[in-house]
Amino acid sequence: TNKQFQKSVENIEYCQSKIKDLDIKEMEEMKNTAQKYSDYKKIHFDERNKIIRNELPHFWKTAFVNHPQIEELLTEEDVESIDYLVDLYVEDFEDIRAGYFLHFEFSTNPYFTNTVITKEYHLMDKNHKVLGKKEPISVSSEIKWKPDMDLLAKKKKDKKKRKTFSAFFSWFTDNEDPASDELAEVIKEDLWLNPLQYFLDIEAD
Amino acid sequence: TNKQFQKSVENIEYCQSKIKDLDIKEMEEMKNTAQKYSDYKKIHFDERNKIIRNELPHFWKTAFVNHPQIEELLTEEDVESIDYLVDLYVEDFEDIRAGYFLHFEFSTNPYFTNTVITKEYHLMDKNHKVLGKKEPISVSSEIKWKPDMDLLAKKKKDKKKRKTFSAFFSWFTDNEDPASDELAEVIKEDLWLNPLQYFLDIEAD
């Protein structure tokens, strides 16, 4: 009968609501676990970065140059500017699923006045849903170039008799297609996780 | 000096080993959480499937036919055979990251003698590493067709004056390219999670 049918449908709806509740709890628990470990790991990343900054000059430049995928991208100009990079760090958003920052901290350098430049990747949409197959969004700090030092000004500087160009800063300022941003992936998932192998130029274990 | 350099490198290695340990613990904890909730949810999925099987005849056929992506694929022959589907269930591997099964349970039917046919998806390689960008592997049960009832035999059966063909069973037996197996995705991530909306042919909330 129709009443029986209705009852069966309601019973299924009850099962579905239980499953939905459990899904929400599971996502919450996963998020908390990720955040907990992110905090635990941060202590060691910070300690590592302190050693790099204070005891190992040219660490990041060397790691960049020895990294097979990153090296391909670097121009001479890039290598010169990246030698002023004293700290690279990846920072998760407060809700770790929502996105992350790539921070690049530079010492005083001839190119720009910023100390830290940041590129951030947003992986969630406005409704706080994780962007699955949807496009992420990236945003980058404005680089405050010193006069005549803009590495992205592509026109020939007659005075200096050289073309200034930077693939690294091109990537940094390009937010057109963050979904296929391979360099961000390489920095976050490889270089940041274990840069020592590239600094020492040894085979990864 | 070289000794200082060596010491700094060792200190970084120590940080990296701590980070690696935390990564392993995090993965373990994530796996345990996923498994715990999978068990919790299974109770409700089982209850739901019991109601479907015992109280709502033609449930799965109706849901299949009303599902916009699945419906596109179904031939008349498929719809006839799928009406014998009494239970659909998705089962995770013991290690939930390693893969999953799609089980299709049929009542006695004119087409084949199997009771349950299963298609399984392996998402990890031999070293128990989750297959990231690597290809998954799928394996399907052998279907024991009754004489002259093979829905995959494409040649015209003169006796019955019809072409027997099934897009559903073609998909089921095709393990060539599991990475782009959209039907498996739809079954696992949509139809299985909430089939009621398709059974009732209502808008999803």
TrEMBL record, chains A, B:
<comment type="similarity">
    <text>Belongs to the nucleosome assembly protein (NAP) family.</text>
</comment>
<dbReference type="InterPro" id="IPR002164">
    <property type="entry name" value="NAP_family"/>
</dbReference>
<protein>
    <submittedName>
        <fullName>Uncharacterized protein</fullName>
    </submittedName>
</protein>
<dbReference type="GO" id="GO:0006334">
    <property type="term" value="P:nucleosome assembly"/>
</dbReference>
<dbReference type="Pfam" id="PF00956">
    <property type="entry name" value="NAP"/>
</dbReference>
<dbReference type="GO" id="GO:0005634">
    <property type="term" value="C:nucleus"/>
</dbReference>
<dbReference type="InterPro" id="IPR037231">
    <property type="entry name" value="NAP-like_sf"/>
</dbReference>
